[in-house]
Amino acid sequence: MKLLALDTTEDSCSVALCVDDEMRWRFQIAPRQHSELILPMMESLLAEAQLSVQQLDALAFSRGPGSFTGIRIATGVAQGVALGAGLPVVPVSTLTALAQAAFRKQGATRVLSALDARMNEVYWAWCECRDGVMRVSASGEQVGAADTVTAEDDEKAWGVGSGWFAYADALEQATGIAPSRVLPEQRVHARDVASLGLAALAAGKTLPPEEALPVYIRDNVAAKPIKKTPLAG
């Protein structure tokens, strides 16, 4: 399978390309430069692999929650490129991608992902790993004050994401997760978006690009129509 994944959720910008069992990526900390960097990064990876976008099987993207501007950029680019190339898309939860990073780095199988949502709140979700793939638990994705996060009894749980950097004390008290089992500086990375996208693609869980929308969680932020974005092939 050939899949291209992208993320512009936080202050970082990343793209990953998976061709069968080989993964390659680009990652850069670049606040407010996502729209300038994302297409050149995609084109660079495809050129390196000697592929055109039309040769891909699907495009995965981080659909949120996160920065409103960032997830709109990711959604717009993914939709536009996929429409132009006739590809399906795989929307991937940013919170699940963070949990996938904890599994990749620490073998974590229970993770509380938390992103700093500003206004003294966090986007959060409990995630669990099955067959190497992280999934959001039944409690779903939520937003709220760090001290209102619901604890789930699991002494082996890990915490990951910028929410743990901003509200460590409140989250530790709410969840019981020890500081030694927290990855507060882990950002969403396209390589983890790609891993989750591949699992969804293998399971036939793709969408036509026009049906893929950003997920904000917070307060009814309306999605606008997406313009077609060409990518050189």
From TrEMBL:
- Can you cite a GO biological process for this protein? proteolysis
**Which family does the entry's similarity section mention?**
Belongs to the KAE1 / TsaD family. TsaB subfamily.
One Pfam family of this chain:
TsaD
Q: Give the UniProt subcellular location, in the record's own words.
A: Cytoplasm
Q: Which organism is it from?
A: Thiolapillus brandeum
| Superkingdom as given in the UniProt entry | Bacteria
Name under which the protein is recorded = tRNA threonylcarbamoyladenosine biosynthesis protein TsaB
Its taxonomic placement starts with:
Bacteria, Pseudomonadati, Pseudomonadota, Gammaproteobacteria, Chromatiales
- The Gcp-like domain, residue ranges: 29-125
Keyword annotations of the record:
Cytoplasm, Hydrolase, Protease, tRNA processing
What is an example of a GO molecular function annotated in this UniProt entry? peptidase activity
